[in-house]
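Hey L., structure's done. Input below.
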Amino acid sequence: MSVVALKPMRRASPQLKLLLPEKQLSLSTDCEILLDLSRLLSRVLHPTPTGVDRVEMAYALGLLRIIPDQIAFALIHPAGPCGRVSRGAAVDFLHLTAERWRLEGQDETTARRWRRAAAACLKLLPRPQKHRAVRSRIYLHCSSRGLERRSVIERLLAREQARFLPFVHDIIPLEHPEYARPSGAALFRRKFETVVALASGVLANSEATKRAIVPLLAASGRTVPVRALPLGVPDPFDARGAQNDSGTQRPYFLAIATIEPRKNHLLLLHVWRRMIATMAPEAVPRLVLVGRRGWENEMVLDLLDRTPSFSGVVEEYSRVPDGTLRELTLGARAVLLPSFSEGYGLPVAEALSLGVPVIASDLPALREAGGDVPEYLDPLDGTAWLRTILDYMPSTSARRAAQLSRLAGWQSPSWDTHLKGALAFIAEMSR
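Output:
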């Protein structure tokens, strides 16, 4: 099955507005945060963001609003240099990037995209910058970009007299190297060794990630505090709406994930093959897959490309605009996450924020995100997944109604709460 692109069903809301916290927060005036933008610059040619991209942007725009006089920017440049960059150039770059995400690069030709990328790389080349004297400075790094270059990080910390605060999203390449890209586990190990050696504190996206990190930090002999802060639900997954659940359309289930081994798409495809083989054609629900094709996926891709019976039943989209993804989520009978391993369950939180049921693997990180609302299943138990999906399919499904009832008391995590927790942790580090 070929990968196609959907046209937006509605224009996504501007990122600049909804990635910011609603309430004012504060930080001691004698502390400065030096926020690393390496990840965003490395993705300058991409018109749509990944989850980590969104986190770095949320921190940048949120801190600019909350503590505008105490935030500065640095990065590890693709050309090699590392250090502070012009604040004006950084702010312009953030606003342009957010606008490109909103429009999904619709106004860009290939030539214009490359010109913008070249201009951004030139304007964001680290150069000596004047900066005010402060009692405490924190170098906040929200991705793993460039952390394998330990000596570079050490020089920046020494030059800035700063303490290092990295954000760790997961350590899956260390726990499950079989799910990493070829040589990916070795590269990640080098990155994490920099965290272990240099961090004065660590931010984590979940208690599950924190529990994985703490023993590795303790084994180094260093005492490094770790704070777990759930990610906020990004725009447009921040308000529930009436579900688009028309009885005139064939029901469908939605899976949102890069097609890679640990996301376990193979289980879903085998479940759908069983339904196609044993049910009347009109009774089989659709399966909608949203996510780019990743690595080490020969069997999954063969099934998608060479299974005639999937035609008209299994739909695959490499990416869709945020507004369209919201509509797809609202119309789904449930969002499916049969993953083998996760650092945080953001797709769980996003679906529940829209009032849509979730069927997910029984993993600590996913339970942390969804609480007692979703259905949790063994990611190896195909029979249980088949049975549960069939139970959720009818409009009169009692099992689905029960989850919707549980969902009534669920609260969406917010970026406001997340950033408040991060600033509190930074304040503790700065004492």
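The first strand starts at residue 31 and ends at 36. Confidence is low (pLDDT under 50) at residues 1-23.

-- N.
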